[in-house]
Amino acid sequence: MRSLLRSPMKPLRCITLLAVLACASTASAAPPKTSKAPKQEETVLAKDVRVRRIAPGVWMHITNAGKDWGGTAANGLLVEDGDASILVDTGWTPEQSKALLTWAKDTLHHPVRAALVTHFHVDRTGGIPTLDAQGIPVHGREDTALRAGKQGNPVPSKRLADAQDFGPLSVFFPGAGHTPDNLVVMHPASGVLYGGCFIRDAKAKAMGNLEDADVAAWPASFKAAREHFPNARIVVPGHEQPGGPELLDHTEALLKKASR
């Protein structure tokens, strides 16, 4: 934040400035309507790849699709793990994953040692070929691997259990929702809950792409996820901006609307 210039002021200007600051202070004292993740500066790695630090040791990556998907932005995580890091979801393309791996190694100095994908769609799995080429294991549920293969999307080579620790992360399959195989991922040390497309952003008016969704099962699965991870402080959806626990309430309300 830029500091105010300390040049001499006339008394009237001082009074005016103090009045403005007092008004700003009074306005900011009111409690916010929503608890948002701290706004952080983004680092641009390529025209379609950005990273943003959202908690100590936790980075959100944002990758944009090509014209086939309307340039849609998708989120993922890069989580520091000792001297290395873990990639959660790979971006849309091998080139995007390459940019993330290069940045983690050369700038963050925490090279990616492993990755996991939260479901079989290409915004989660598209970068797998780059990780395979660099000998970095990519983990996913058995169901995710089967569905990715049938869809013609890249397939994770390693398998995840439905509930397990994965380095500093806790991985949980709550049941079907956005897709039949969707995982949610928690970083307990920071309180970051990454829901992928299982959780909607604050501005969403509906549940998004339902082509592979199980809308009937989603509410019970969502309840299971909230019970399994009750201490979320920062919530990252699969698309758009992160926020606080209000994103969970918002998603739950959208689910009730969708199931009527």
From TrEMBL:
Query: Which cofactors does the annotated protein need, by name?
Result: Zn(2+)
> EC number(s)?
3.5.2.6
Q: What is this protein called?
A: beta-lactamase
Q: Which reaction does it catalyse?
A: a beta-lactam + H2O = a substituted beta-amino acid
A matching Pfam family: Lactamase_B
Give a yes or no for keyword Signal in this entry: yes
Q: Which Gene3D superfamilies match?
A: Ribonuclease Z/Hydroxyacylglutathione hydrolase-like
Where's it found, cell-wise? Periplasm
Which family does this protein fall into?
Belongs to the metallo-beta-lactamase superfamily. Class-B beta-lactamase family.
Q: Quote the InterPro entries the UniProt record gives.
A: BlaB//VIM/IMP-1 (IPR058199), Metallo-B-lactamas (IPR001279), NDM-1-like (IPR050855), RibonucZ/Hydroxyglut_hydro (IPR036866)
What's the name of its gene? bla
Which keywords does UniProt give here?
A: Antibiotic resistance, Hydrolase, Metal-binding, Periplasm, Signal, Zinc
Q: What is the lineage of its organism?
A: Bacteria, Pseudomonadati, Myxococcota, Myxococcia, Myxococcales
Enzyme class comes to: hydrolase
**Assembly, per entry:** Monomer.
Q: Which organism is it from?
A: Corallococcus carmarthensis
Which intervals hold domain Metallo-beta-lactamase? 73-239
Q: State the source organism's domain of life.
A: Bacteria
GO BP terms, alphabetized:
antibiotic catabolic process
- Where in the sequence is the signal peptide annotated? 1-29
